[in-house]
Write a structure and sequence with these properties.
The complex is a heterodimer of chains A (257) and B (438).
Chain A lengths: L7 E12 L2 E12 L3 E5 L6 H9 L4 E10 L2 E2 L5 H7 L1 E4 L6 E5 H15 L7 H14 L10 E2 L5 H15 L3 E5 L7 H14 L5 E5 L4 H5 L4 E6 L2 E6 L1 H10 L2 H7 L1
Chain B lengths: L2 H17 L6 H16 L16 H4 L27 E6 L2 E2 L12 E5 H7 L18 H8 L4 E6 L9 E7 L5 E2 L2 E6 L4 E10 L6 E10 L4 E9 L5 E10 L4 E8 L4 E10 L5 E10 L4 E10 L5 E10 L4 E10 L7 E10 L5 E10 L5 E9 L3 H8 L5 H17 L5 H19 L4
Parallel strand pairs in B: 1-5, 4-7, 5-8, 6-9, 7-9, 8-10, 9-11, 10-12, 11-13, 12-14, 13-15, 14-16, 15-17, 16-18, 17-19, 18-20
Antiparallel strand pairs in B: 1-2, 3-4
Helix pairs in contact in B: 2-5, 6-7, 7-8
């Protein structure tokens, strides 16, 4: 929901970034305020995922110019873990499998680390178990997933639910969800989107990186941005997503030219 | 290595044996005598032997060992940390000698657990034709030395169609330095039986000692054997061992071997699929640091058709340690429709850590599926990044991933309390290596 006096969570100005020596981001500016839902769409290779990873602090993504402030702090001065502790969350397109580490163990470690950094109480295993089971209900997740290794052998949909579960536990101020909808069937999409909606408040915000308008039927964006060639080439409201769905991206190139 | 040094070493190992009086069993005397002859005829392996190329035992050969003297038997309390609540029976050996006061041999009917000396003394005909049939003492000096002194060890016998109601623990504790022991284990799982054996080696003594073990496992038709092997010898110890396994038709053998201890350890794991349709699963973990060397040589011999083997061997190597893995798989000409997969995965935690890994596939059948792979590396950048986006420091992320890498093998141990205790050991060692999580 757009509110005039809402607090600015993220302010990115003219961000440029390289991956393996190649400039992928060529000057991105984006402002996200509390309470807002943004969607970033665009063709493959337009730099959407790179943008999300650069903001989250992936060491392979080299920021070469521009600024980003998160909740008033210089984002690029912080290592990845501090960005997370400060309340920035990245939901991965391809969540990493960690064999040998029980999901419950990982979730509790992440939760307690972030809680500790925020000066809040940590939970012992029993308290955490109650807490995480409650949160899992949001996503209609089977508690059996707690005992399995992190993401190992999870289906695509299960991995994405596990991502949103982590979002639910870490309570970020701003969540970037990178193609959380890809690979989900319609039931899983409905559940995952429902989970995200329940987590949205007037104090936090979400940026959905997606190829598909379908997700935006469930999580309704306040802004839709189109990325192409490492830049945001157009910004509109939810109607823009519908237009992209029916017309593709080519008309934007002509319009920009 | 001078010949005289190895000779002195060999003589010190055999010293205890020749003193042993000939027993009443003619077949045993003949076996020991033949093995003693082989021990004297065989040369001790050096790095010039292809099978020992990476494992230099010269530090071992410079030492002289003595047979174990009478050891002070630890109290039950002193070895409480080795207690496994799930066990159906437990045999404890102190410096190679059976300690009846620490053991409980009562398993259910049809599952017989005995110490080898008692079993030999009983002379009931069971051991003849079963003992020393699977581990070849004619081609290996260490096995020959073990066999020449055959006296102490464990016998586990599961009768036909009997399933044990808990794991059998065989615990070999070393308490004295400069002592060499030669434990011998025989596991016979008759047709249709089901048994889990935990074979554990640990040191309570500082200083160098030597354990030279041989374990034989006969898996009958449609029998199932799960074999957990934990080597946690003291830091200065030498541990050389062979596990020789033979599977009959539709038998199943699953082993998890974990090597944490010893200055130098070598485990030969030889598995023969002697019957059609048998299934073999081998999981291994070496978690070593400082100047340790851990060597695993496995050999899976698919001699009959329709066999399945799956192997995952992992090494986590810190400090200046050195891990060796040689995984030989032989598919004989008649062994059609064999399905075999072998993976060697290795994690180096320091720049001076070292791994030599070698898959060795020899396939003589034309309708088989065989896959193998080896990877040596550091942790993946994407894995670290994932954990850091969840708030974990880089050190905490490294710790967790390293722990998980090793725990994947530990988790395959079918005895919950053993898996839990090893998870703790793995956690402590990875944290010691990488520093506490910030």
């Amino acid at each position: 929901m757009i509110r005039e006096n809402a607090r600015t969570l993220l302010e990115v100005r003219n961000l440029t970034a390289k991956v393996a020596g190649v400039e992928i981001l060529k000057g991105i500016s984006l402002t996200v305020r509390a309470g807002e839902v943004h969607a970033i769409m665009g063709p493959n290779g337009s730099g959407k995922s790179t943008f999300a990873k650069a903001l989250a602090g992936h060491p392979a993504y080299e920021v070469t110019g521009g600024t980003a402030s998160f909740d008033g702090k210089d984002l690029f001065a912080m290592p990845a873990e501090e960005r997370a502790r400060a309340g920035l969350f990245l939901g991965f397109q391809y969540p990493v499998e960690v064999p040998g580490v029980a999901n419950s163990q990982f979730l509790r470690l992440a939760y307690n680390t972030v809680q500790g950094a925020r000066g809040r109480d940590e939970l012992d295993p029993l308290e955490f178990d109650d807490f995480v089971r409650e949160r899992m209900k949001l996503l209609e997740m089977d508690p059996a997933f707690l005992d399995r290794s992190v993401n190992e052998g999870f289906s695509g949909g299960e991995k994405k639910r596990n991502e949103i579960l982590q979002m639910a536990l870490l309570e970020p101020r701003l969540a970037f969800l990178d193609e959380t909808d890809s690979g989900l069937d319609i039931d899983a999409l409905r559940i995952v989107a429902g989970g995200v909606n329940k987590l949205l408040t007037a104090d936090n915000a979400v940026v959905l990186v997606t190829h598909y308008q379908r997700l935006l039927n469930y999580i309704v964006p306040d802004y839709v941005h189109v990325m192409d060639g490492g830049r945001i080439v157009k910004t509109g409201d939810k109607a823009l997503a519908l237009e992209l769905e029916s017309r593709g991206y080519d008309w934007l190139d002509k319009q920009a030219a | 290595m001078s010949a005289s040094a190895t000779t002195a070493f060999l003589e010190s190992l055999l010293a205890g044996h020749s003193a042993a009086p000939a027993g009443p069993l003619a077949w045993l005397n003949a076996l020991r005598g033949e093995a003693l002859e082989r021990a004297n005829a065989l040369t001790l392996p050096t790095t010039r032997d292809e099978d020992w190329r990476f494992t230099d035992l010269s530090a071992l050969y410079r030492l002289a060992f003595r047979p174990a003297g009478a050891a002070a038997i630890p109290t039950v309390v002193a070895i409480e940390s080795f207690a496994v609540p799930e066990v159906a029976a437990r045999l404890v050996f102190i410096d190679g000698r059976f300690a009846p006061g620490l053991s409980s041999t009562r398993a259910k009917a049809g599952i017989e657990v005995r110490d080898l000396a008692s079993a030999l003394a009983a002379d009931d005909g069971f051991l003849r034709g079963r003992l020393a049939q699977l581990a070849d003492h004619r081609d290996d000096a260490f096995r020959a030395i073990n066999t020449a002194g055959l006296a102490e060890g464990a016998v586990v016998h599961a009768r036909q169609n009997v399933a044990a109601d808990g794991p059998i623990q065989l615990l070999f504790l070393s308490t004295q330095p400069e002592v060499a022991t030669h434990p011998r284990v025989l596991i016979v799982a008759e047709d249709g039986s089901d048994v889990t054996v935990l074979e554990e080696y640990a040191g309570l003594a500082d200083g160098a000692y030597c354990v030279n073990g041989v374990t034989e496992v006969a898996v009958g038709a449609a029998a199932r054997v799960r074999h957990v092997r934990v080597q946690r010898e003291a830091a200065a110890a030498f541990h050389v061992a062979t596990s020789a396994v033979r599977l009959e038709r539709d038998g199943s053998y699953a082993s998890v071997s974990v090597a944490l201890g010893a200055r130098i350890s070598r485990h030969n794991l030889n598995v023969v699929q002697a019957g059609e349709g048998a299934t073999i699963a081998l999981d291994g973990l070496a978690l070593i640091h400082e100047r340790q060397l851990a060597d695993t040589h496995s050999f899976v011999d698919h001699a009959r058709p329709h066999g399945t083997s799956r192997q995952l061997h992992k090494c986590v190597v810190g400090g200046q340690a050195h891990a060796v893995f040689n995984g030989r798989i032989l598919v004989r000409a008649g062994a059609q429709l064999t399905n075999s997969a072998q993976q060697s995965r290795n994690l180096l935690l320091s720049r001076r850590a070292h791994v030599d890994t070698k898959p060795q596939l020899e396939i003589f059948a034309d309708d088989v599926k065989c896959a193998h792979g080896a990877a040596i590396g550091q942790l993946e950048a994407d894995e670290l990044f994932y954990l850091r986006t969840r708030g974990l420091s880089e050190t905490a992320a490294r710790n967790l991933l390293t722990y998980g890498f090793a725990a994947e093998i530990v988790d395959r141990i079918p005895i919950a309390s053993v898996a839990a205790s090893l998870r703790k050991a793995v956690l402590e060692q990875t944290q010691a290596e990488l520093g506490p999580a910030a």
